[in-house]
Amino acid sequence: MAKVTIDSRRCKGCELCVEACPHGVIVMSTALNDRGVHFAQPARLEECTGCGLCAVMCPDVIIEVEK
Ligand code: SF4
Ligand code: SF4
User: Which of 67, 23, 14 has its CA nearest to residue 42?
Assistant: First the structure.
């Protein structure tokens, strides 16, 4: 299991990280952030392999993966 941190305040809700994750770890929130969008959040971290695909895909570089 790896640690995935997402800066939810800066997330623009594009969902690219959700699509990138092969294990369905990241989901969109039901709540809105200060930008008024549903933000990405790690939900099933026990499934995370630490591959880093989500971090690579995020256009705003707000995802950090620690193995
Ligand atoms: S590091 Fe890989 S497995 Fe973990 S949340 Fe990101 S894309 Fe999914
Ligand atoms: S790729 Fe980045 S900006 Fe897009 S939803 Fe995921 S965390 Fe937010």
Answer: 23
